[in-house]
Amino acid sequence: MAEVHFTSHLRNLVPGGPFAAAGSTVGEALRNLLAAQPQVRDYVLDERGELRKHVCIFADGERLSRGAALRRNIGPDCKLYVMQALSGG
Amino acid sequence: MDDSLLVATRKGLFALKRRRAGWAAELIGFAGIAVTNALRVNGTVYAALKHGHFGAKLHRSDDGGNSWRELAAPAFPADAADAPTLFQIWSLDDGGRHHPDRLWIGAIPAGLFRSDDRGDSWQLISSLWNVPERARWFGGGYDAAGIHSVSPDPRDADRALVAISCGGVWETRDDGTSWAVLGKGLLAPYVPPEQAEDSAIQDPHRVARCAAAPDVMWMQHHAGIYRSTDAGAHWTRLSPPGDDFGFAVAAHPRDGATAWFVPAIKDEIRMPRDGALCVTRTRDGGKSWQVMREGLPQRDAYDLIYRHGLDVDETGERLAMGSTTGALWFSGDGGARWELVAAHLPPVYAVRFA
User: CA of B98 to nearest chain A CA: how many angstroms apart?
Assistant: First the structure.
């Protein structure tokens, strides 16, 4: 299970955490987690299911490029951070 | 008479109330978050947010802003042509007296969304999204075209008018089933001359309707000020003294001959002339004008009033306006004299009597 941490900007919507999420890609893990936490889904993904323009993902310390982030393969102990991209603010 | 105001700003939603000791501003929600518009209908307050990172959202409060509930924001369906994503809720309006549970949202990109359940669910009005002329719409101030003015006709439950920057003025007479572009007489100098009269590429910065004389509409256009006396079909350009560029317009709710504008030097500058802010008013349909400066800054003022930054109450006597530099003014006498209510708010996006 991946371990997913949300930016403090979203913590009022997803208190507690980090969260365990199953999936072999970033996209799978996130979608599984967001299905269980639907109140934060639209803050991370847009209505097309794509990563929002100003949200960025780190996987095991590596900042993923937005276009490829959801397709990235991850191992079972991956640490994912869902952060706000500074470009958006 | 209720003097309270909703003020939507770059950094939160404020309510301003008139107390015996003067005006009191209260931050009622969303500190730090852009509130692109706000609305109060029958005691319920709606706030449209634009998070820098997390998208456009919609919230509702049934207790005057003490507590808020997030609603599903309008979304473009996956099978909508071009399948865009919502960038911003630009306008937020009630459905008029025929549709008490209805709300309208004008968005960027230029989708028109309707709710008939107080905002619990939203539908894209695909009949407008799918007009072939949409291919000629383009952004004005934003990357994509947007809808900023929605005006239900108080006489007819099936009629409403919307205005788009830059996509002209559109009317439905069958409750949104079909749409026709209006706007004969409008002229766009920002396109090649042979296209200047194309109704579907006009940039109406804001359209306001007289509630008591609904055929009378006023427009602050990108290039000039216009008035229509046939509900938007034909427009006549007016000639106020000085600048006729600006964004906001307020229509007197009872008198079809009276409206207010806030001029600025035209498009490449967008500042008050000589650093001196004024409001212009006509009371005779545009034949003559009053330029009103009392109480407004007359030096070093670089305030711009955005589209939704000027409002008039139901009496036509009280006006409020908020600026890009965070100043808010109130007039209790039809704009003749202004009082500075707050000088250091965040940039103001929308002001509404509520």
Answer: 31
